[in-house]
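Standup notes, structure subgroup. Blocker cleared on the iron/sulfur cluster input:
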Amino acid sequence: MDLFPYKPRQNQKAIMGTINTTLESRGHLVLESGTGSGKTICALSATLAYALEHDKKIIYITRTNSQQQQVITELRSIRLHLTDEKTKEKIFGVGIQGRSNMCPMAHEDNELSQGTSEELSRFCANEKKKARSSKKNGCQYYRHFVEDKEKVKQAVQWVQNTLPTVEMFIEYCEKKNICPYELNKLLVRDALVVVVPYIYVFNVTIRNMLFDWLGLSEEDMILVIDEAHNLPDYIRDLFSSQLSVWMVRNCGYEVDQYGNPSMLDGRLSVKSFCKTLEDIIREIRDSYVYNILENGLRSVNGEKKTDAFLPSHEFVTELTSRMGITPKQLHDIIDDLIAYGEKIQENKQKQNKLPRSYLHKLGLFLDFWINLAHEQYAKLIVDAADGKNPRIEAYCLDPSVGTDILTKFYSTIHMSGTLEPLEEYRDSLGLSPKTTLVSFPSPFPRENRKILYVKDVTTKYSELVKDEGVMDRMWDYVFGICNTFPQNTMVCFPSFNTLSMFQRNTDFSSIKRSIFLEEQQMSQSALMDLVSDFKSHGENEGNGAALFSVMGGRISEGMDFPAEQLEIVVIVGIPYPKPTARQRGLQRYYDMKFRKGWEYTVEAPTARKLLQTIGRLIRDESDRGVAILLDRRAPRFRKYIRDLEPSSHLLKDVQEFLALR
Ligand code: SF4
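Run returned:
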């Protein structure tokens, strides 16, 4: 409590107390507390107090760079508020990002900036080796770091005094011509808090490297997981693997550039192997996703799909039979591809290029695919890029494949504004049944938030087909709200597809106010500009604007809109996951493992998206806002959204709420 830098609210005292009890019992805590309730500062204050007293370190993992910035900013507030100089000195933290963000050489070179952590690590090791053996070659940022001791000393001092965000730290190092990544390795040993992206804990190689830098083992570290509702999907993606036609083509280009060696005693060339692979992926896509029959016609019963399950041995059987090879020979081919890929990597390295080899990746993928423990994975064929880039995919259904590490930490604190049902999160990650599950109610006055839904519209496909008037009524609601109320309004769609359908079928010029539109491919900086422009329309009694966005996206899950920056949220339809083969596989797996397929894989993720979107409205005690769900299925989520109310006169109800200032 001594470290908490503000006047704590009652719920913040309760959060810190719960975290402290968990730490004292070396336990694990899954904690839900509404958006804006101050989880970050509570977790930092409570874990820091414990770590100081018991000689532990805190690994604080975040999903986005802006969350990382917030942790560093709060750490600074804690230090500022302290009066005892000795404790103040100990409050020291470091933020680390991936090498592609932190390496100045990667900033200067487009190809390098696209490198994976393994590729950049290899590139960096070679640059450092060259720098050590020659005055002219190799990385100059590393050379200055090693040779200019005074500059490094000043930099360490500056970081200890300033507690910079990673962005400030990188800028400082680039100006001083020293490598931020190397400097971080030095600093991290003295840090009490290390703020890193998820990958630093869930990728084994990167984790071991971090632990080496820290010179500590897991049992001396407390792990805090921010925005934990993202973690199961994050781990699924991290442990999934795919092979696309685009990647196989790149293998072909690599062969054109570096030579086409033969395999199997000269019976097969790498190029012809890749060509056969590409043909097989396309043909499997045609038959499983497009339902094209052997006679070349499309099955009349086949519905339009984007993916399909692939029988476990289908791809390998097709490959071996078409090439006339045995499974043992396929293993030999895989070994050859990996060995040849390594030579290409070395060659590129000698030319100061990113040591990337697609043939190497291909060999590793095939090795992974044929050795897969398939009950935790679904093998899929997926169509992508309008049919131009189909792929086969080993999709990880079970995030617990990557969470063994969690039990090794001294304690773990998993926090989010939207984690209900908490048992689902615990079970998905394979946490112990003894894990403490706590949900704190919102600390903000209930009367400041209104959540309405209407009963005469839906985005349910079968009803849209039956009743063409549904869409017109939906758009009438959107236009009515945008044109009636001057407050800043965000209109959120279940996906970019539904948002573009809205764009195609309506006339935006009917909305008489400034309009902002989130686009899927928008760069982070363009998105930030768009959001800040939108926010400024709501401030200082300005003429509010309408922002069209999607649920589950960067805006609806990652950005804060305090006070007048956002007062109305319109949700156009329930964001159920698409019924793809991937989704069905997930549901089936959870049915098998927990008997809760629908609840855990459909209902809970949908509720979280809704709550995250609604959560943008209220960020502190004085914030007010109204959310409107345009879908008659909204009451299905009443157990997650308890203050949901039907509305028969939507504009009037919104008007009445907004008038109550
Ligand atoms: S030493 Fe630093 S700047 Fe040089 S290549 Fe490695 S990460 Fe990049």
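Discussed briefly. The first strand starts at residue 28 and ends at 33.
Next: hand off to the docking folks.
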